[in-house]
Every structure is written in structure tokens, then in C-alpha cells.
Amino acid sequence: MGRDVTTGPFAEARGKLGFGCMRLPLADDGGVDVASFCELVDAFLDGGLNYFDTARPYHSGGSEGAVAAALCARHDRSEFLLADKLSPGSFERREDVRPLIEDQLRACGVDHFDYYLMHSQGMGNYGKYRECGAYEEAFAARGAGLVRHVGLSFHSSAAFLDKILTENPDVEFVQLQLNYLDYDSGVIQGRACREVAAAHGKPVIVMEPVKGGRLVNLPPEAASVLAEAGPGSAASWALRFAAGLPGVEMVLSGMGSMEMVRDNVATFSPLEPLDGAGLAAVERVAEILRGQNTVGCTACRYCVDGCPKKINIPDVFSCLDARRAYGEGSAGFYYRSVHTGNGHGLASECVGCGACERACPQHLPIRELLREVAAEFETQG
Ligand code: SF4
Ligand code: SF4
39, 111, 207, 288: which has the highest count of C-beta atoms within 10 A? Predict the structure, then answer.
């Protein structure tokens, strides 16, 4: 399973692959298809892996309950490790934090979390966590046995990560966005953030190793680069890149189908990090992708709930990518008939409040991009 860690917060993790519970299979009503999720959970555990990651905002509040039903109610607590998070929109005051953790434990049906993360830390919300004493409350919950390890997930600059880790030396691990497309990006600063974590002696969990699916659904030119370089799915190349980075002890993948679970489990059975030729191949793919005119949205949907016009931001961005990068002829139909209307605003109805941009982990200029969406689909049809 590709593990060589026997000490530290991930010593009990079997394998380096974690099951991210933010893109679970969906039922017809839009909620999580728990029956299908049960099958995925069982296949993941049968594959010799045991790390699961949830958060209150995932699936509009439905992820924790789905985890309770599919995982915690059906498997002995010793069979799995569970991570949950203190999300920015889930508390306002210090007094909110402990009751929230207790409520999350009830929602998941467990008496402790193995990992508890300060969620999506960055310049826009760290001040609130500090003022509310959120880190201190998390450490106190650790002392009380409600959580075993405290970490943070991070979406900002390497310099800011250094500040947070300097101010909170008791944080045990860091969750970073690392993938072969963004690794040296000046915006995401994946390499620099990983180096900061290493300098502070913190192990790293990787999130977004396939960049919300962008490194799975490759254009033909990029897919052929990987096909010529060796066997394996596009996802497997991205996971092998992420898992092979120094200091990385866990790689999360949001899995929504049995095909994804089987493919990912196979990638880690055993894990073979990319060699020099493999690294050259993914760099060539990255060059091709960077040459395309795509938005770079990972469809995390963090921006959606706070939008006063209920604009389906990631979906209209996917329409823009489909038309501009892939020449998809039906993109206009999807824009007008599927992703807007029924209470969901047009891109042109954006009032420019900026709430979405403050929530976006990719630091996308959403308002500007929505103007491009409107120009593409609302003036040309
Ligand atoms: S800036 Fe526009 S898209 Fe963003 S939250 Fe405000 S109204 Fe919605
Ligand atoms: S625009 Fe940003 S916040 Fe919204 S779904 Fe895309 S990456 Fe996530």
C-alpha cells in the first residue's frame, strides 16, 4: 500500500490513499446515494485502506450523515480512521466550537475523530479563527479525547502558512493542494507550501491531486502523452505524482463510483512513485493543459452557498471550458437550460459582492470570469 511511516499522526493509516467524502455518489433527489456509498466504503476497506475525510459543508451538510450510515454504523471503530473539520461558516464565537465538535461527533456516530482540521485556512479567515480561539478549542478537544490529532487545511501563500505554523506549533499536520498542474504555480504555491510544512516538521496530506477531475478528463493530445509513457489511468499518474512528493503521508481522492475506487486502490497496491520519465510525462501534460484557455475551477462548490443570486458558478465555468477549450457544441444548451434558471441566476445577474471570491480556494477572479461567461453565452446564444 506504499506506506513506510510507523510514527507520527498517520502511523495507524493503512496505505497513503484517503477517501474524500465531498464527491460521493448521488441519488435522484440530489442527496448522497447511501446504498452506493456503502459499497464504495466496503471496497475501499477491503482494498486494505482505512482513512476517510469529511466536513460539515460537504454535500450541503449531507456528508457527515452519509459517513455515519455507510461507514461508522456498519464497521467497527477500529477498522477506520476519520477526519472532520472546523469549517469557517460553522461557528461565530469561541463558545460555539466545543458544542459544534460534539455535534459533528453525533452526526458521524463516533465518540472521537482521529483527525480534526482547521478548514481552508487562509488570509480571509485565519483572523476569525485566532480571535475565536478556535485553535485553542481544538487543542482542548484533543486533550479531552474528542479528537486525536489536530491539523489544518490550507489555501493561501507559503509565507502565510509559515506564519500560521509559527503561531500554532502544536498543529500536527498540514493538508495542501498539490498536483502536477499547480505544483509550481505562483497562485497555489504548492511546492513552496510543502517546503514550509517540511521546515516546520509537519507531515502533509494532499487534497485535489487530480484538480477536481481536470487531470482525469484530459484532452486527447495530453492523454496520448500518458498512454505513450506507460500503463495506467490518467488519475493514477496524478496520484502517483502527489504520493511521491517528499513529506506526503496521505493523498485524498474524492470517489463517487466503484470504478474510481477500484482504480485508485490498484494505484496504491503497491504505490509506485513516478520516476524521471514519468515526471517528464506529467510535466508535458501540464504544459498542454496550461496552453488551454480553461478556468481552473475544481468544482469544490465553496463559492455557491454564499451567492445571493444562487449562480451555479462551477457549472457555468464548466460550460465556458466546454465551449472555449473543447469546442463542445451543446455548452450553450447546458448553460441556458440546465445550469441557469429555476432560481439560479445568469452570469450577468452577478451583483459583484465578491463573497464567492473570498470563498474560492483557487483564488479565481470569479466576477471577471462571469463577465466572460455572460459574453460567451448571453450575447451569442
Ligand atoms: S460576486 Fe456575483 S457570483 Fe460572486 S457571490 Fe456575489 S453575486 Fe454571486
Ligand atoms: S469557483 Fe472556486 S470556490 Fe467555486 S467551485 Fe470553482 S474552485 Fe471552488
Answer: 207
